[in-house]
Design goal:
Layout lengths: L1 H17 L8 H30 L11 H31 L7
Helix pairs in contact: 1-2, 2-3
């Protein structure tokens, strides 16, 4: 599941960067910006599902001889990634909502 999240995040990033190469106000910019929503919605869905999934299938316990910081660091890094993904999804939604971006007709 983490690889899917990574691929969706990279797809959204690539689509966002590609917007600079389209002519301002063209139809292709509208289509590309709408296509960028697809990985964002997928990311938001997976970010909501992962905590539930982690409750149902917890990670195995580390051996007791492993240093404490090595036991905590995977949890901290995964938590920071998910916090950043949530912030990214919320700011993307708010940016789209307040820029007057509606679906093209």
């Amino acid at each position: 599941m983490y690889w899917i999240i990574t691929l969706l995040a990279l797809a959204a990033l690539g689509l966002g960067w590609s917007l600079d190469y389209f002519a301002e106000g063209s139809r292709s910019v509208e289509i590309a910006s709408l296509l960028r929503i697809v990985p964002g919605v997928g990311l938001a869905t997976l970010v909501a599902i992962v905590p539930i999934w982690r409750r149902c299938a917890p990670t195995p316990d580390f051996s007791s001889d492993r240093p404490q910081w090595l036991q905590i660091s995977p949890w901290v890094s995964a938590s920071l990634v998910f916090i950043l993904l949530v912030v990214s999804a919320v700011t993307g939604y708010l940016g789209r909502a307040f820029s007057g971006g509606a679906a093209p007709e």
